[in-house]
Specification:
Blueprint lengths: L3 E3 L15 H9 L21 E5 L3 E4 L2 H12 L4 H15 L9 E8 L4 E7 L13 E3 L2 E2 L2 H5 L10 H12 L9 H9 L1 E2 L2 H12 L7 H7 L12 E2 L2 H13 L2 H4 L2 H11 L10 H6 L3 E3 L2 E5 L2 E5 L6 H13 L12 H21 L10 H4 L2 H8 L32 E8 L5 E9 L7 E2 L2 E2 L36 E4 L5 E5 L7 H14 L4 H6 L3 E2 L5 E5 L4 H9 L3 E5 L6 E6 L2 E6 L6 E4 L1
Parallel strand pairs: 20-21
Antiparallel strand pairs: 1-2, 2-23, 3-13, 3-24, 4-5, 4-14, 5-10, 6-7, 8-9, 11-12, 12-17, 13-14, 15-16, 17-18, 18-22, 19-20, 22-23
Length: 597
């Protein structure tokens, strides 16, 4: 059993004193989008806990909730694989963290086979119903639906892909029987689990949000008769979900996509009181999870691998890191210095300009990722990063001859979960799953919530010049995502870092910042995760974490950066692999836990 070490996540090493002069800032520099509405806060912030660091020589599990971490650990100790553990954990997360993920949504799973030295990607992203058209989110010509009018209800529900994805991964890499992986979640759903602070606060926020709690099944499960959420520490049972899980466990995915569960999903979407949707039985029967080649790119001595499009996450993370690596004397900067954060903001703007313009479902849209990550292209883009002051305008996408698309706003909401697992044989899973906004579409069926992932598409299909937008909605298409499950390899092609996070479009800067600080600037994995977040998705202002040091903010403002300040609730779960040891770190900003095997 690996020992667990706890350290105080509230204590941070900062190296940017208030008296730092602008001349000193300049000297450290010369040595060297449109994805989310910052005014929409779909998932509540958590009070920071003590960051949990676990060490082991035989394996590691990190998930967003201790119930799920325990289920994953127990699964491996019973002889299960990393994939088995991920499935067991995900089923528990759908029960205890329903605001973030579940079988009514989708996700991406990256798997590394330690014996074959082989990497595979399993795509469980939702798809648009075949009955939609490009004007699905348009009220009239040149007028899109208000966001919350589209967000809540059946109109935003895509075909769920998580069950099919998990089953595909299990067929290839599972060791324990499929049905046995459901047992921890079924037992917990039947006997009940303790409502956490985060779930309770999420329910309170849901009740106060536009449209509120309009679904009767949702209200009955999570709220008291007086309309208040069930209290922290009380026991919540979900027998409907236990029955649903039992059916899928015994009959496989057909029970979900072709049986009564699927029929109930379709009826709930079609009869929704907020806004009826277009999902039908054929959409569920037609759904197929994809097995794909991961997106991989060598940057110096490291190889970055992750989900390919329609996820824009690993592409954008990789491009951001490469742009930063090509700025002058990056390695001379302290990992938490204003010099680093200035460059980071500017690299984010450039990369999000490309991401927002070119990345979408590759079955419908040509994605020029190879050209966008080519050495010549990134060299040119890196030279656009101003080293002495903030850029005073939005970045524009680079010119790629093979495609021509318009950059456009496409909301990504931060209701997601991530887990990182290494089993006793060294097999790895990095998996991110989501139902989009907190509590998804707010439609509850058979004990689980349905996604509202169609709002990840651009609401507007064309611009005034009739130029097509890459991420426009089309029948059967997968919406662009920011989920970023990744594995980083060294020059010997050995895995050294497993990483991912929830957070909507902000997943990308969360992951890119952590990787750069850890691999390039010498920060420990813990310090990299716990250092202040600053996110920019190609806007004139950045969003800075509310408890970031005033000295950092003031110095960056002297350089011309503008900020909004708010909690940035990442949930980075990362495993460092070095010299036969696994070091797992669970972000203090959520409820995640790390456990060595």
């Amino acid at each position: 059993m690996g020992k667990i070490y706890q350290t105080d996540g509230a204590t941070r090493r900062v190296t940017h004193p208030l008296f730092l002069s602008i001349a000193l800032v300049f000297s450290c520099f010369t040595s060297g989008v449109y994805a989310v509405d910052d005014n929409i806060h779909p998932e509540v912030a958590s009070k920071k806990k003590r960051v949990l660091v676990a060490k082991s020589q035989t394996g590691m599990v990190i998930t967003a909730n201790d119930y799920a971490t325990q289920a994953a650990s127990d699964t491996i100790l019973k002889g299960g694989s990393a994939v088995d553990a991920a499935i067991a954990a995900q089923l528990v997360l759908g029960l205890v963290e329903p605001q973030s993920s579940g079988i009514g949504g989708g996700g991406f799973l990256l798997h590394y086979d330690s014996k074959k030295k082989q990497l595979k990607h399993f795509n469980g992203r939702e798809t648009a119903p075949m009955a939609v058209n490009e004007d699905h989110f348009m009220v009239a010509k040149n007028k899109a639906y208000p966001f919350f009018d589209a967000l809540v209800g059946g109109y935003a529900v895509g075909t769920p892909g998580l069950v099919a994805m998990m089953y595909n991964a299990h067929k290839q890499y599972g060791k324990l029987p499929w049905a046995s992986l459901f047992e921890p979640a079924i037992l917990l759903a039947s006997n009940g689990f303790i409502i956490s602070n985060r779930l309770h606060d999420s329910l309170k926020a849901l009740a106060k949000s536009p449209k509120g709690v309009s679904n009767k099944a949702l209200a009955a499960l999570y709220f008291q008769t007086n309309g208040e959420p069930k209290p922290v520490g009380s026991i919540l049972r979900n027998p409907q979900l236990a029955n649903t899980y039992s059916e899928i466990a015994n009959k496989g995915p057909k029970a979900f996509y072709q049986g009564t569960i699927g029929q109930d999903i379709v009826q709930a979407v079609k009869n929704d009181s907020n806004k009826k949707g277009l999902l039908n039985k054929k959409d569920l029967i037609r759904y197929q999870s994809l097995i794909e080649t991961p997106l991989c790119k060598n940057i110096g001595n490291f190889k970055f691998c992750g989900s390919p499009p329609p996820s824009s996450g690993p592409f954008t993370v990789t491009q951001m890191v490469e742009l930063l690596a090509k700025t002058p004397e990056l390695k001379g900067l302290a990992y938490d210095s204003p010099g680093f954060y200035h460059r980071f903001i500017e690299a984010a703007k450039l990369s999000f300009a490309d991401r927002n313009t070119y990345i979408a479902d590759p079955r419908f849209t040509k994605n020029p990722t190879k050209a966008l990550l080519s050495p010549g292209y990134t060299e040119k883009r890196a030279k656009l990063i101003p080293l002495l002051k903030a850029s005073d305008e939005l970045s524009v996408a680079g010119d790629i001859d093979e495609v021509d698309y318009l950059q456009v706003k496409s909301p990504n909401q931060p209701s997601t979960t991530h887990l990182s697992i290494v089993d006793k044989e060294g097999n790895i899973v990095s998996m991110t799953t989501s139902i989009e906004h907190a509590f998804g579409s707010r439609i509850q069926v058979r004990g689980f919530l349905l996604n509202n992932q169609l709002t990840d598409f651009s609401f507007t299909p064309i611009n005034k010049n009739n130029e097509k937008i890459a991420n426009r909605i089309e029948p059967g298409k997968m919406p662009r995502s920011s989920m970023s499950p990744m594995i980083i390899f060294n020059e010997k092609d050995q895995p050294i870092l497993v990483i991912g996070s929830p957070g909507g479009a902000w997943i990308i800067p969360y992951v890119a910042k952590t990787i750069t600080q850890h691999l390039y600037l010498g920060a420990s994995l813990e310090d990299a995760i716990e250092s202040p977040h600053i996110a920019n998705t190609n806007r004139l202002h950045a969003t800075i974490e509310d408890d970031a040091p005033d000295s950092l903010k003031k110095t960056l403002e002297m350089l011309g950066h503008e900020f909004k300040q708010r909690p940035l609730t990442s949930g980075i779960h990362a495993i460092k692999i070095h010299n036969g040891f696994y070091t797992g770190v669970a972000d203090s900003r959520r409820e995640g836990t790390a456990k060595g095997l």
